């Protein structure tokens, strides 16, 4: 009976110790999460050089730690989609310009047709003696017919619109913004750094590094940029 009682007490003690260990682990996890929520605070709408939808999609597809090769592949696909969006935007501008050109040409043809009719009425005798000349109907759409001159003008306009759009994007990238960040060395240290919207993550980290004396001897390659739960390579 004494042996069974000792065994029962040992089992009960082991169960209590296991429950205590789990409780401490849960407490530590909650503590770490609270500390994490209070540290990194770079705005969702502030950092740099990429469209918001690219950042959101990249974050969605790379939750947690992701291999560098997988991250680069995902990023390459997103950049390809972004280029497709650029092409769509240029095409939309071109279609709008082409529609305006068609309307303009149509109005000019109608005016020309009226002018030719007025000239014909001035000489009735000549009109009766000569066969009627076949005229083109200005209301018929002939834009589908091959026309090298028109195609050259349209291509030139398309290139001009694309150059204009890309120039506007480059101008946006040179705009400066102020970013609030937190340097973590065991505790959080909040500061602000000025960057351009087109700066890379590496350039952002370099600007931050210069603000801390203890980081002057640290290479940027040995620093990490963490946005919420995502470690962003640079």
TrEMBL record:
This is XAP5, circadian clock regulator-domain-containing protein. One of its GO terms (cellular component) is nucleus. InterPro entries: FAM50A/XAP5_C (IPR048337), XAP5 (IPR007005). The lineage of its organism: Eukaryota, Fungi, Fungi incertae sedis, Chytridiomycota, Chytridiomycota incertae sedis. Residues 108-142 are annotated as: Disordered. Pfam families: XAP5 (PF04921). It comes from Blyttiomyces helicus. GO terms for biological process: chromatin organization. It comes from the Eukaryota. Residues 175-234 form the FAM50A/XAP5 C-terminal domain. Residues 116-126 have a biased composition (Acidic residues). Signal peptide: none annotated.
């Amino acid at each position: 009976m004494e042996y069974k009682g000792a065994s029962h007490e040992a089992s009960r003690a082991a169960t209590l110790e296991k429950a205590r260990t789990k409780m401490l682990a849960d407490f530590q996890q909650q503590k770490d999460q609270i500390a994490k929520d209070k540290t990194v605070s770079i705005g969702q709408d502030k950092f740099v050089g990429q469209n918001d939808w690219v950042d959101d999609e990249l974050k969605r597809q790379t939750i947690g730690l992701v291999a560098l090769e997988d991250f680069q592949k995902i990023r390459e696909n997103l950049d390809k989609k972004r280029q497709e969006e650029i092409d769509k935007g240029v095409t939309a501008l071109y279609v709008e310009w082409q529609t305006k050109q068609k309307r303009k040409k149509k109005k000019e043809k109608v005016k020309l047709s009226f002018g030719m009719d007025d000239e014909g009425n001035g000489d009735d005798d000549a009109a009766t003696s000569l066969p009627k000349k076949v005229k083109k109907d200005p209301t018929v759409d002939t834009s589908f017919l091959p026309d090298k001159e028109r195609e050259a003008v349209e291509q030139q306009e398309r290139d001009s619109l694309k150059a204009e759009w890309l120039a506007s994007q480059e101008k946006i990238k040179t705009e400066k913004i102020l970013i609030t960040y937190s340097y973590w060395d065991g505790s959080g240290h909040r500061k602000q750094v000025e960057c351009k919207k087109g700066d890379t993550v590496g350039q952002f980290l370099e600007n931050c590094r210069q603000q801390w004396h203890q980081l002057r001897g640290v290479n940027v390659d040995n620093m990490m940029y963490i946005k919420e739960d995502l470690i962003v390579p640079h």
